[in-house]
Input
Amino acid sequence: MYADIILPLALPKRTYTYSVPESVAALIQPGVRVEVQFGRSKRYSGLVERVHHQAPDYEVKPILSVLDEVTVVTPQQFRLWDWMADYYCCTLGEVMSAALPGHLKLTSETRLVFNDQYGDNFSDLDDEEYLIAEGLHIQQEIVVEDARKILNKKTVFPVIQRLLNKGVLFIREELQEKFKPRKVTALRLAEPYRSQPEQLRQVMSDLSGKERQLEILMAYLTLEKRQPIVLKQEVLQKADVTKASLNTVIKKGILEKYAREVSRLGGYEDELVEADTLSAQQERAVQELKAQDKKVTLLHGVTGSGKTRVYVEMMREVIRNGGQVLYLLPEIGLTTQIIHRLQKVFGNEISVYHSRINTQERVEVWKSAAAGKSVILAARSGLFLPFKQLDLVIVDEEHDPSFKQYDPAPRYHARDTAIFLASLYGAKTLLGTATPSLENWHNVETGKFGLVEMPERFGGLQLPEVQTIDLREQLKHRQMQSIFSKPLLDQLQIALDNGEQAILFQNRRGYAPMLECEVCGWNAMCRHCDVSLTYHKHTHRLRCHYCGYVQEPAKVCPACGSGKITFKGFGTEKIEDELKLFLPNAKIGRMDLDTAGTKSNLSALLNDFEEKRLDILVGTQMVTKGLDFDNVGLVGVLGADALTKFPDFRSGERAFHLLTQVAGRAGRKNKRGLVLIQAFDPGHPVIKEVLAHDFPSFMQREMQERMTFKYPPFYRLIHLELRHKEPKIVNEAASFYAKTLRAKLGDRVLGPVIPNIARIRNYFGQNIMLKLEKSAPVISGAKSLIRQTTEIMLGKPGWSQVQVAVDVDPV
Ligand SMILES: [Zn+2]
Ligand SMILES: [Zn+2]
Output
């Protein structure tokens, strides 16, 4: 017997054949993992795709062990992987690598970490498990290779797998946050009051006259009737007293504190609330969605129209029928805000899956998806879960470019992949956004997708008033104060005086993007990339945003010796800094990659703004993504030109999306919000369309341009990037590559050209672009030509180290 195995590597062949020894034959079936050797000595957990009796004409290695008793990958997952490998022009191994979570991938080098939560009671373990557990308990972290030494045997994957299943260890992945169970402080009655009601009555009458203490006790008793656990925070809130009064009650020995661990998943213990009543517009949208006969529907609702409430209604229907919902959001959108909103309605029906949860949590969600958990809220990796009965896929903020994975392969678009995933289960897909992508608007116009619109804001609120500020005029009349125009500073002051909050948007982090000599024009460049270094004031360092290289800023020009070197341009850090000078009393927060690097920092920042401990939030595009605040009177965009002038065919679309989304954060419950856009070219068509909230004109103009210049949605693009450390080698390889493609595809092939940034991390690049008409034979022909050409090119002497990145449908 033989088995075809997928290995988690970028290998040329789809699968590799191994023989099945008698001893494991009974356990082998498609979808289980096996331990195999690949190359001279390395071992991997591979996945059985097919079992058969056709002996290949070469000598095969045997399967060493079987790791699973039941399949870990479903037939639908196999089909999804195949589709992705084919569509995105990569290998099945690369898809497998991206799709399987860490705990299902073992290699000889995998690092194993002891799970402190397990404790030191090893009585449930067999001898081999015990030896490894003990070794790990002492050393905390070992590699699989060490386990082989401990047991003095070659095949250890099965033992490690059992220990993983039992929760004794987990797999160390890069950037993994250490697993800490969330702890909350809960309160309960101290003895003897807990068990003796008459004593409790006594102490209550003793407290008469001590109003606040009595208040606390009453609040506790009311909460206790309703819920199994009473949190300290809830008592404080309900009684509306200070911590000091509570501490007195605790000191008196009436109530006592205890710490309680809550699982991060399904740990929702607050009360469930009934979702708000649907507005007339929401009600209509729900009816239209239910009546849709198209498989995919675009829900186009302006910012603040209340799309989430519509999703809730659609999700409920699926849950009632026993199905599952996958709710995809851009990573950054997965903040506590949306999670909490949905948990309030669905409680423990919801699991959350994204790159910032740890291994343990990931294992839990993986299992719960397979068991049929109703709702999974996820970033793009949620596509890879083993669903049982998927009935609905929601892609929220479908226009967001971060749904596209760039590096490493598979370079897939989660929204487009989601549509295919849904089709495998016969599920419906709902794409929601205030600013549809051109691709999907085209799909609506050609009748491929259905459309439901929500043109009004919830509660009859008006869309914000958008105004432009001409920076040329401001400079001419000497009205600029640093980077702020007079109207912007004035309006900020007015907002603060009215007790409103403001958001300032600039799509660049750091203090200044350039350090330049005024005498000779020298500027500080990265040592490894052809980009200028960004100055970060907080750390007083110049940093490369491409490779992370850091250096101290020079005090004199290294080229001419002049001391006149200055920072040019500005990022979010400078805005925050300068704002403090003009508005000394404002409390200012900053949200960008530098401040919101971890999950907890990000939620702390958002909580502070939501609970009005901050007056102004300065941020990059992070602030545009699906956040809802109810007290933002003003939104300011500092330099809109950087968006509209960016040299890329998507810059118009991107600028329209970003400006509309950030403008959409403005608006209070009962008051229209104001948006001020500073620009040197306020007459740019995109800015005018944002000003007028004129989506139809924007679409019409942009579609026309795309058609004229042969871009999506009318043509399909495949982008190729070749890289090598030697510019000469990559130049030659790229010309050969383009010539080979051009021989068959003619003028559909553009390039090679040197990319905007010629060198990144010391690798020189060359780009080739394919513009293909939307014809299935042309596209599949081009893809197989790319595969062949890559193989031929890599086979040429001296070119084997050239890296090729194939990006289908680049964004
Ligand atoms: Zn100089
Ligand atoms: Zn660099």
Remarks:
- The two ends are 45 Å apart (CA to CA).
- The pocket of zinc ion (ligand 2) is lined by residues 526, 528-529, 544, 546-547, 549 (CB under 6 Å).
- The longest strand covers residues 42-52.
